[in-house]
Amino acid sequence: MFVNFRWIRKCQCVQLMTTCLVLSVVMVCWEQLDDGIISHVKSYSYRYVINSFTYINKSLTIPREQARSFSNFRYLLDPRDKCAGKDVLLLLFVKTPPKNTERRSAIRSTWGNETYIQSSLGVTVKVVFALGSPKTKEEELSWSMRGGVDIQEQLIHEDGLHGDLIQQDFLDSFYNLTLKLILQFHWMHSRCAHARFFMTADDDVFIHMPNLVNYLQDLSNRGVTDFWVGYVHRGTPPIRRKDSKYYVPFEMYPWVSYPDYTAGSAYVVSSDVVDKIYQATLTLNASLYIDDVFMGICANAVGLSPQEHIYFSGGGKAPYHWCIYNQMMTSHGHVEDIYDLWKEATHPQVKQWTSGLTGGLYCTAVKIALLCNPFYVNGYPCKAAFL
Predict the structure, then answer these.
(1) Would 119 be classed as within a structural domain?
(2) Positions of E strands within the chain
(3) What is the pLDDT of residues 69-90, one digit of tens each?
(4) Which of 186, 195, 231, 302 could form a disulfide bond with 91, CB atoms 3.0-4.6 angstroms apart?
(5) Distances 129 to 49, 171, 179, 346 between C-alpha atoms, Å
(6) DSSP code string of 236-258
(7) What tens digit of pLDDT does each residue of 175-208 get?
């Protein structure tokens, strides 16, 4: 039998080159592969098999004196009588940087208009804005010396007009969002504990206030407790890529999975939950700057679990359609379009167009086309089309 050794050597060379190429690709992509697949496998295994979140809570527990350093900042603006003497259904905090004056103005004119809510919906909702300091003292001094407009003076003037800014003297930055979270829970605990619900939202979130009020009124009538609802993240691993905005080093959080939490863009809790989270913040290390994850750690420490509401969006916008507006709670990523969206979403004929057998069938078909599209992510899940 004749064997072509030259052909064999050629095939072996090709195999060797192919193997080297594959190994090279794997080595180059290993970090992305680890972040994208392996880290999620580890995270889910940790959550469902090992489930050692109790150990995490114990390891993050610190003396009260040390925990107080995350909350004992001086108030720069504090409308302490905002809720006084009123039956408040909802206290709604909007997280906003000092510079976002126009966004705050748009919210006051649309879904956060307290006068509209009281007159049209018949309930009291208090909308306030949570801020840190616009600059460090050194930066503010340098800015003033160059003749710049004092940002803090602008905020004082804005608060004088509207009385809805709550500000402490920590630097307002992404890495201090957990401090802003603690500010919100501590302020409600001391200033507005009688409100039946608490909500926190980003200043680029659209809230369908009529739908939300109806939903919360029903819950209030049923006397719900231990209530925490939003867009739920389960079995989420920490991001270890240093180029990511959400990078968390092992030194800060060495475990492979976060406790369940709701997206920080918008979520709602009942008043009893506010008190429990407040108590948790008095004993936990708040150096983790991912605020919605810290909320999950606090909640897990006091035995609370989030509930998913399919019409609370995560990181994406809801589709623009009145079949969506009929059940919308929140939608993320709205700035320039907030006025038009508010006008369309609250149009009195939306309920009429989507009611009845014909309207229901039509909207189901529309929502299937919009929400079950594989290219539509981070908004409402496909199953929302059938509810």
Answers:
(1) yes
(2) 75-77, 88-95, 124-133, 165-171, 197-202, 205-207, 228-233, 261-270, 307-308, 330-332
(3) 999 999 999 999 999 999 999 9
(4) 195
(5) 41, 15, 14, 23
(6) PPPB--TTSTTB--TTT--SS-P
(7) 999 999 999 999 999 999 999 999 999 999 999 9
